[in-house]
């Protein structure tokens, strides 16, 4: 038999071999990973054995935390793991979507830091990350009516933004209001300085709104007025490169590694995630 015919036969065998599934105590069909059904059905008893001997574990949420917990449990022999996911997709705040011939991240995008960072630890030897510049400070400001803000005004306003960020550590230590209130207070204070006297107030206020939204996006919150000012200082950066990207493949790369996806969409979590299932109450 030639090598090619052997490979074709092997592929046909793999295609015909069914995955071994059993019904759990609730009658839900669960895939038994690692077992392929052969004619003897022997796998079912083996599979059942594994399931019956390990505790049933339900994980709420198939975001990075849930996926990480589930895959770790599986590696430690806990086979009876199910994830309940409210949405119709996994990933939670990690959402990489196709865009043109590449991908874009709607949520998490960069790997921040190289020490004490579980994400970096997981991928550091796999050549998946590269240094990336987070944004280009030369961006133009465009008003909702399409008017492009002149470079002088733009530079001045961005300067206030930078100053507020730089002074955050000192100012927020004893600040008792929200991060949004802090940004606004110091922004308005800066505007009173002579150097900003010629800046159009309407444009300045529009810029403040943009600035607050940018901070909200970085904080991962809906409203910066919900974020504690002082609490913001508790965030500790992991040392090392703060802006590493996934070479155009998106943050979902790290979830794919955890799930060990090869040709299967959900890898070792195949048939273990119950989508569109929101946990409503816990008794
Ligand atoms: C805009 C944005 C940018 C970010 N940028 C970065 C970045 O560049 N780098 C970085 O490292 N981090 C970044 N983060 C943070 C990172 O995305 C999160 O820390 C991480 O994804 C959180 O994962 P998680 O599993 O803990 O929570 P989530 O991702 O929120 O997952 C929780 C999951 O649980 C599900 N769920 C919730 N309630 C229920 C329920 N009752 N029943 C069933 N399912 C439920 C949700 O649908 C969701 O899928 C960013 C976050 C945002 C929002």
From TrEMBL:
Gene Ontology molecular functions: polyamine oxidase activity
Protein name: Amine oxidase domain-containing protein
Keyword Acyltransferase carried by entry: no
Keywords: Signal
Phylogenetic classification of the source organism: Eukaryota, Metazoa, Ecdysozoa, Arthropoda, Hexapoda
Signal peptide segment: 1-17
Species, as recorded: Megaselia scalaris (Humpbacked fly)
Domain Amine oxidase stretches: 65-224
PANTHER family reported for this sequence: AMINE OXIDASE DOMAIN-CONTAINING PROTEIN-RELATED, FLAVIN MONOAMINE OXIDASE
SUPFAM superfamilies hit by this protein: FAD/NAD(P)-binding domain
Tree of life domain: Eukaryota
């Amino acid at each position: 038999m030639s090598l090619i015919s052997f490979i074709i036969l092997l592929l046909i065998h793999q295609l015909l071999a069914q995955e071994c599934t059993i019904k759990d105590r609730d009658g839900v069909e669960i895939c038994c990973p690692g077992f392929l059904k052969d004619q003897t059905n022997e796998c079912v008893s083996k599979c059942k054995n594994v399931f019956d001997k390990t505790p049933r574990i339900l994980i709420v949420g198939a975001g990075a935390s849930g996926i990480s917990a589930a895959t770790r449990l599986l590696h430690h022999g806990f086979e009876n793991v199910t994830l309940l996911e409210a949405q119709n997709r996994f990933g939670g705040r990690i959402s990489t979507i196709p865009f043109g011939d590449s991908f874009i991240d709607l949520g998490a995008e960069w790997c921040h830091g190289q020490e004490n960072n579980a994400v970096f630890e997981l991928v550091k030897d796999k050549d998946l990350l590269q240094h990336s510049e987070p944004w280009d400070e030369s961006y133009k400001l465009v008003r909702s009516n399409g008017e492009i803000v002149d470079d002088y005004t733009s530079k001045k306003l961005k300067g206030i933004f930078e100053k507020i960020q730089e002074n955050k550590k000192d100012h927020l230590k004893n600040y008792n209001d929200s991060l949004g209130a802090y940004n606004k207070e110091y922004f308005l204070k800066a505007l009173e300085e002579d150097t900003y006297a010629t800046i159009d107030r309407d444009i300045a206020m529009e810029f403040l709104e943009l600035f607050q939204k940018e901070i909200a996006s970085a904080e991962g919150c809906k409203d910066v007025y919900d974020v504690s000012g002082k609490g913001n200082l508790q965030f500790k950066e992991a040392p090392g490169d703060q802006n590493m990207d996934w070479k155009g493949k998106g943050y979902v790369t790290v979830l794919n590694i955890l799930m060990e996806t090869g040709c299967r969409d959900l890898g070792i979590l195949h048939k273990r995630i119950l989508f569109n299932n929101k946990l409503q109450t816990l008794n």
